[in-house]
Specification:
It contains 16 helices and 11 strands. By secondary structure, the protein is α/β, with parallel strands linked by helices. It has a 6-stranded mixed beta sheet with strand order 4-3-5-6-11-10, with helices on both faces. Strands 2-1-7-8-9 form a 5-stranded parallel beta sheet.
């Protein structure tokens, strides 16, 4: 299949591995930001194929994983109400809250439905005017345009029974936090291609200059990732620090301007708490005052929730690239996909789930 098989070509992948071996003269550490990239790296064993002096560490680019525990508890609280139909993408249902997850609540009888698009939730609200339909909007800039469009459609249709529980987060502020940390050991970054498809990569240019590191916008297939690693290492060896675009078949420098316009209309930038990391200033979206009648946090009276993560779970350190999943004492024992302690063991983009399925102890 075009654009898939050609980026899984074994001979082409091997040629990039050979090129990498030829140019590397010293140890380098590269972080891939996106959980989708992490899964490809682990699934295809790319890290084991690289020279020993090239280290890959996994970043916080799993939207399910960084959704704070308090927000899961808010979702559970809303979904438990008898007049609510709570809708969500499937990977959010098993993310553990402080007491239970949405899937358990569904098994107990709450009306919780998996949808494949936020527009499905809008259509459901039209069909069930006697119910309050809530959509759980999580994710990075990638999913924000569709969620914004759902709010615009609900507004256009005059729906009074549709709302969104918004927990969107933004990549660049998290990158800044990691790079400014005293524990930072990152020499180069692979930026997430799908986020940059929406936002472009101009936001990364000042970050690259400020921290003197190469940033390469990279896709998700094995050849994409190996080419992105090669481009990053070539810059490091040549002492260049710029933003390059490996994923040019999808990403433009300016991004998708139409999508950005919709997001600007519906959302405002706000401080946002990241699970296992803490509050990062100006790192998320909230629903703007213009569309506050669709803001589930304002519609439903929810008490402030303060909860603690399991002391066994090191998800925050994994998300910051400071630890690998196998470094956790609970990995594969107390924490499994069937009985997760933290979100990275649940999500299809979580590093812990990737290691459990493709790189077990």
């Amino acid at each position: 299949m075009k654009y898939i098989d050609e980026y899984r070509n074994g001979e082409l992948a091997q040629s990039y591995l050979e090129a990498i071996k030829k140019i590397v003269t010293q140890p380098w550490t590269i972080m891939e930001i996106c959980g989708g990239q992490t899964h490809s790296i682990v699934k295809y064993g790319l890290e084991e194929l690289l020279p020993k002096n090239v280290t890959l560490i996994h970043g916080p680019g799993c939207p399910v994983c960084v959704t704070p525990l308090e927000m899961i508890d808010k979702a559970v609280s809303i979904a438990s109400m008898s007049d609510v139909v709570f809708t969500s993408f499937g990977d959010m249902l098993r993310v553990p809250g402080s007491k239970k997850d949405l899937l358990t609540l569904k098994a107990e009888g709450s009306d919780i439905r998996i949808v494949y698009s936020p527009l499905d939730a809008v259509a459901l609200a039209e069909k069930t005017p006697d119910k309050k339909v809530v959509f759980f909007a999580v994710g990075f800039e990638t999913t924000a345009p569709a969620n914004a469009m759902a709010i615009l459609q609900a507004s256009k249709k005059g729906l009074k029974n549709f709302s969104v529980l918004c927990s969107h987060v933004l990549v660049p502020p998290a990158v800044e936090l990691l790079l400014s940390s005293p524990h930072n050991r990152i020499n180069g970054l692979l930026a997430a291609g799908h986020v940059c498809t929406v936002m472009g990569y101009e936001e990364y240019i000042p970050i690259s200059k400020k921290y003197h590191l190469p940033i390469v916008v990279t896709g998700f297939e094995p050849v994409d990732i190996l080419q992105g690693i090669y481009m990053t290492l070539r810059q490091l060896e040549e002492k260049r620090f710029v933003v390059e675009n490996q994923y040019s078949r999808s990403v433009k420098r300016e991004g998708n301007l139409t999508a950005q316009k919709i997001m600007i209309d519906v959302f405002e930038i706000t401080d946002r708490k990241w699970r296992g990391i803490g509050v990062i200033p100006q790192s998320g979206y909230k629903i703007s005052d213009k569309y506050e009648k669709f803001d589930a946090e304002k519609i439903f009276t929810l008490e402030d929730i303060a909860v603690e993560e399991s002391p066994l779970c090191i998800a925050g350190l994994v998300l910051q690239g400071l630890k690998k999943p196998q470094d956790c004492s609970a990995f594969g024992t107390e924490c499994t996909p069937e009985h997760p302690l933290g979100a990275p063991m649940v999500s299809s983009e979580g590093a812990c789930a990737a290691y459990y399925h493709f790189h077990p102890l």
